[in-house]
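Can you give me the bound-state structure? Components:
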Amino acid sequence: MTNPLVFFAPSGKRGRFPEGTSVLEAARKLGVDLDSVCGGRGICGRCQVEVGDGKFPKLGIVSAPDHVTEWNAVEERYVSKRGPLAEGRRLGCQAKLCSDVVIDVPPDSQVHRQVVRKSAAIRDIAIEPVVALHYVEVREPDMHEPSSDFRRLQEALEQQWGLKDITAPLESLRLLQWSLRQGLWSVTVAIRHKREIVGIWPGLHEQGVGLAVDIGSTTIAAHLCDLASGEVLASSGVMNPQIRFGEDVMSRVSYVMMNPGGDVELTTAVREAIAELAVSVTKEVGLNSNDILEMTVVANPIMHHLFLGLDPTELGGAPFALTIDGAYQTRAAHLNLPLSSGAYVYVLPCIAGHVGADTAGVVLSEGPYLRPEVSLVVDVGTNAEIVLGNRERLLACSSPTGPAFEGGQISSGQRAAPGAIERVRIDPVTLEPRYKVIGSDLWSDEPGFDKAVIRTGVTGICGSGVIEAIAEMLLAGLITPDGVVDGAMATRSPRIEEDGRTFKYLIREGEPRIAITQNDVRAIQLGKAALYAGVRLLMDRYGVAAVDRITLAGAFGSHIDVKHAMILGLVPDCELDKVGSAGNAAGTGARIALLNASARTEIEDVVRRIEKVETAIEPSFQAHFVGAMAIPHKSDPFPHLEAALGVTFKRGSGDGEGGGGRERRRRRG
Amino acid sequence: MTNPLVFFAPSGKRGRFPEGTSVLEAARKLGVDLDSVCGGRGICGRCQVEVGDGKFPKLGIVSAPDHVTEWNAVEERYVSKRGPLAEGRRLGCQAKLCSDVVIDVPPDSQVHRQVVRKSAAIRDIAIEPVVALHYVEVREPDMHEPSSDFRRLQEALEQQWGLKDITAPLESLRLLQWSLRQGLWSVTVAIRHKREIVGIWPGLHEQGVGLAVDIGSTTIAAHLCDLASGEVLASSGVMNPQIRFGEDVMSRVSYVMMNPGGDVELTTAVREAIAELAVSVTKEVGLNSNDILEMTVVANPIMHHLFLGLDPTELGGAPFALTIDGAYQTRAAHLNLPLSSGAYVYVLPCIAGHVGADTAGVVLSEGPYLRPEVSLVVDVGTNAEIVLGNRERLLACSSPTGPAFEGGQISSGQRAAPGAIERVRIDPVTLEPRYKVIGSDLWSDEPGFDKAVIRTGVTGICGSGVIEAIAEMLLAGLITPDGVVDGAMATRSPRIEEDGRTFKYLIREGEPRIAITQNDVRAIQLGKAALYAGVRLLMDRYGVAAVDRITLAGAFGSHIDVKHAMILGLVPDCELDKVGSAGNAAGTGARIALLNASARTEIEDVVRRIEKVETAIEPSFQAHFVGAMAIPHKSDPFPHLEAALGVTFKRGSGDGEGGGGRERRRRRG
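Here's the bound-state model for the whole set.
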């Protein structure tokens, strides 16, 4: 009698095994991706498979449910505890081969399952665990052979899981003694990179969770993820408590420089906030912060240094030397974070003194290095981080856009929060505006608008609102291509008002009055010119005249209307349907690094290959900056945009107040 | 013209190099052991060599001082700062080859120099640095190429020292920024195992020090060593502050079992004591505790666990399961020890639940595994740890000797301290005793004795004194081979006094009266029988009837007179000149592990190979114990001893009070 043939779908791997071999065993020997935490004891239920029923002529197999052994007592016990399996499923560790059979491994039984991202994403996240759970039964101590608890655990891990020379930190060793006895010599250990114990529980423990953290200058966001499924179990955010030491990162660096010990205060503040997030986000799903087995972090360079406890002072001035740029990992306990006994924190690499681990997260999430076409990825904040390139070559720089895009230095500006005007349209004939406010889906000229905004009021205008307003003002002829609010238009609309020696455009009457002043336009021009100049610098360096794709990342990038951004000349011309926003791509990058071990080496390699361009010392930056002061640009063509809008832009002279304001604005966070 | 030939002594390595190659460079290329911290910059002076002058016919070389380049300005600068070099010496990095030459590398210029041990030692300690110092010049930060301080340091270490992928803990990274700027882009880094930074200083730093610590139940000893020369710079000891929780280790385990959190108290106490030792011992030589780059620790299993913060409760009862037995290393900061920023603590492996890292230290120091002859190594304390074997095979056990050897449960007993009787002789004719007291070199019957002991008084008798007294009593016929103080001898000497229903022998009249009572003899018999039974168990297991060499380790072992110990039957018969004491061999083992990286893997391997014997469950232990109650032994022959003394021992029945006392005494520390 021949050994039965087993064919695994979807992997296509096949092989013959002696009758009585379990499906799980066969899968392991063939390298088929079939999960298991309990190691084949029929208790974790991770190895569920479907047994093919029918003829598979291409495979030459006739498969049937009874080509594996019958439903057994272990499976009976499993379903009595956990509820029934889905129709047609078996526990792979219990079903044993009798004759030729086709076995389907459903996605939820695969270790390397894909995590489906909600938004239209460029790449899915595949699971490739950094930390995996392993249930083991450990030999009891024996006076005849006095090996230690840990050595017997090591032996069990080697025999039962093929894991050799596993190490453990003292914190885990402290728990080992208790866990072994509590679990009657069975424990589950969480093992990191197949090397080191980072968590330990008596008996079977099935869920491993990790935390992806995005430390922004203003807010800190944390996503609690199931390390096996990739599912986001809970998300939470808090204000960065460092704000009490300074609104933007540069004022925090100043605080450190002026106050001995200030760096320690800032470090403590950010770590405490993350510790609280870890507690609250786990509590939300009935877990404890010490269930967190791994944490990943993205942050801008100054937040990165402060989080790690490194003095950020050098990042406050030229030559902006980072203390470290590579990815860094250290124990959570070392950072005073209340995670699992041996948990590590992995911090993504920084790219340069102004281009941080947050940008590395964006790059990992958006994957411009995977594609043949040339992508432009821009993370717009007080500084814009700009990445340009493709799988051949990638460039990055940072450009000091100033606070205008976040509503700073704008007469009616405010942060993007309920009550802020975020969308603006201007009728080119009547010159009358309409707008939308965060918190309502209605335009201001639609019925019910006033009622809809009663709760929030209309409190100001945020960055995306200002950008749309100025772009619409250009299309309506209310400002010149040089950015001058055209006083002559006062004859056509009462909304053009004198404002000292300049003019402004009134968007909203009432309290507060909201207008776009000449100074507002200038502030936005300075910011967008800086950003555009940075982009052009990279395009020059790369040697392309146009880009194939543009992604706007970050909170601001996800609110902005890409068409208006392009009209303003924030980004270069591109096919409009190739321009999109990526939302919190930095946070997504942290999640990918949390779930996928290879993604870490991938982003580390990519970041090392990125060519860093320092805008401050590039002679051509100034010329690009001046050209980009015009709206959309003094000379650069916008053929795709013009075609889409059916207009031809007039060109400005680009000699507005360019250089002067620039140095004042360098490097705010 | 041919390239000059250089011959290095004492290594015998030779090679031809282009004219102008420095002696240091040539040495490195040939793998000659020539030290350097500054990397050939003429500032550290570690690479001093002697240039041969004369004919070397066997080598075919005529060597002369002018066969290397002339004394140069760098050497001039060096001697102006550091004082002259020894006659005939040059800096190897400055002297460059001109023609054929013989170069002698003096021992103090070798990295792997031998450390000469003071006492007659079985093996010398060779230096093989775990941590080495490297001076590097680091590129300044550059906005055109924004790599971090750490990356530029890594590059410098690779280029200047061939050290790749060096890592650093956050603590060192914190110091890096400051050190680079303070040192004008030159720093010295201490690198551990050619991998990881554990210390950093601006500019050149020449001395690396480490600490070897022996945590005893009673005292903690620390030796500060120069990591390059091996020299002990300072030694210091303190009482183990855990004594306030219990005199012996078992009472400390009881404390932990009875008091929740007691383990943390005990852990904190021992770590604080070590921290204070680290501070005081470095202060003594003008250093700071954070100059300590590496620490090694030996300790018995309970001290080992408490030091590492592991619950020792399991070690309080069968099956005496250790939490870990392998060597363990972790950062000093992790143990709250104030050493260098990245310093590690390496703890030697434990052998079994009663045979700890201290015994591993003894084994490393005494090296029984290196020799063909069968050695017995005994570390006598409240428990005796016994190691038997040779390079083929090594066995170990622990035997519960009880407190008698340390003066406990002895009527006039005391610890070995000034005032204690440590030597006793009894005239076999007059039956009069004479004795020596710790603190004086005079015998009690010598002139001036009374004056010599005025300061200390005569306060009691310590373990070695009791052993000598009982051995002498046997030789004088005052006790029978069964250990009965012979009342009949009262007719011959007034020093034999009635003591209830038994008799005692008076060693000293006056205050305090010091006598050896029948109970004292019994206590010593129980202890020595336990020890001897353990030894015999190992000899049986090994299959030898006699041992070739005996070493007594530990404080007690170094005070004991080997002949008297053998008369008592503490150890088996052996050629007397093959019996010796090793002093604090455990501490020496810690020192070896501190100075020599290979010694660590060596002892780890040896310990794993040691066969552990658990006396408590060996059926033959009891029989051996009973036989060993007699003095010297009921039946075992002592031919070497008898020949040396010119006597033939009578044999006792060995049925004194054997087994009963044993369980009471198990496992005190």
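A couple of observations. Chain A touches chain B at residues 141-151, 169-170, 173-174, 176-178, 308-311, 314, 318-326, 330, 334, 350, 352-353, 612, 614, 616-617 (CB under 8 Å). Chain A has a mean pLDDT of 92.
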